[in-house]
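Lab meeting tomorrow. Please check the following:
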Amino acid sequence: MFLKHLGKLICASAVSLTLFGCSTQSSQPKPAKTHYVVKKVGSKELSRAKAKRKVLKKEERKQQAEYDKLKDQLDSAKEKQAEQEEQAKEQAEAQAKAAAKQQAAQRQAANRQQTTQTNRGDMNTAQTGRIVGNSRSHIYHVPGQAGYRMNSANAVYFNSEQEAQAAGYRKALR
């Protein structure tokens, strides 16, 4: 106990000398000194601090492991999402290609239909009520026969069948 009080007394006197300055030469200023306070800790407090540090390190490792696990899960989820987006993009491209093919096929069919309609002509011989001959094929159609579509530019009209035959036309078979 005595030693403890003696140590405190020595420390206090050292502090007071440093603070108030005990100098033999008052004309020259002394450079400032740094004062360190050393606190002595008992062995019980030291062991408690070490135990606490050990517990904190263990908890830190546990949290780091949990963080790493969550990070791995997040990375794998991001990879899955990227794969799904890639698959969706591929499907969209495939659907776009299929739609483009379908549209092209529809356009071709429409063009074919338009071409066949154009080739069939713009008039029907059954609706005219007269004898109509085709100047290209030299075939004539009479009213009452099955209708035949032809271009009006190729139409030649006759008043009788004899007139059509005299012009070199033959009668349609159907």
In short: The chain has two domains: 41-120, 121-171. The mean pLDDT is 82. The beta strands are 123-124, 131-134, 139-141, 149-150, 155-158, 170-171. The chain is about 60% helix and 10% strand.
